Amino acid sequence: MILRYAAFTADPSGGNPAGVVLDAAGHSDAEMLAIAAEVGYSETAFLFPEGGDRYTIRYFSPLAEVAFCGHATIATSVALGERTGSGTIHLTTKAGPVDVDVVAEPNGPVTATLTSPPAATRPADPADVEAALQALGYTPDDLDPAFPVHVANAGMNHLVVGLASRELLAALDYDFEALGALMAARDWITVHLFWAESPVIFHARNPFPPGGVVEDPATGAAAAAFTGYLRDLALIKEDDVVTIHQGADMGRPSLLTAAPLPDDQRIRVSGRAVRFTEI
């Protein structure tokens, strides 16, 4: 049975839709890829129960398997929480172990908080930045100098690009084929474009051509990588909570919160999810 959830929202018309298969035992890779292509969302999650609160989880875009997906993890964990209540779920992903704390309010919403794989960041190669900006339709003058362009990782690589204004973020109109080819060559899963409203409030957009999707309305893996980037560059304090507004420019507003774990390289990313039948 394929469930459909919108993650990082309490409104099924917002957030990032994900397919969820709660028991995928017996499914082959080819079958899972075919299901993901038929569902057509940026990712569908396939859960393999291992006993108790432990599961192996795999994620497929319509084009390929991905090692880790934040919004599909949140969607899957909320779906489990609706059935089993509050608790901690232990997931094995291809990017490493991911624990998810689920809080199910009586007759109320379910919130899931994932703990990402370790986050790290490094400066992007200047030639790669130039090529990415050309594909994205931006120039170096469009960048916010307070945020150097980096490749950040919390399970997957994301090019992190800070823009100088909200208007520039809203005006995104990129070359799908050119950016997709560059990202495939550099092993970037998304480009995390953002504008800083304040030191801890950000607006983001995430082109996702490697997955066959023009844009992701909510990207938990990118939120974790981005928060690690902010921490490593001392742009936030260790006890700050980062709020990310995403999806508004594509009509699917999403809300993500993220915070670094003290004395740990991992990041906690929180959100709700809601089940729907169709879009």
Automatic annotation (TrEMBL):
Q: Where is the signal peptide?
A: none
Carries keyword Metal-binding? no
What InterPro entries is this protein classified in? Phenazine_PhzF-like
Arranged from A to Z, the UniProt key words for this protein are:
Isomerase
- What residues form the catalytic site here? E43
| Superkingdom of origin | Bacteria
State a GO cellular component annotated for this protein. Answer: cytoplasm
Molecular function (GO) terms for this protein are: isomerase activity
| PANTHER family per UniProt | BIOSYNTHESIS PROTEIN, PUTATIVE-RELATED, PHENAZINE BIOSYNTHESIS PROTEIN
Identify its protein family: Belongs to the PhzF family.
In its UniProt entry, what is this protein called?
Answer: PhzF family phenazine biosynthesis protein
Q: What is the lineage of its organism?
A: Bacteria, Bacillati, Actinomycetota, Actinomycetes, Streptosporangiales
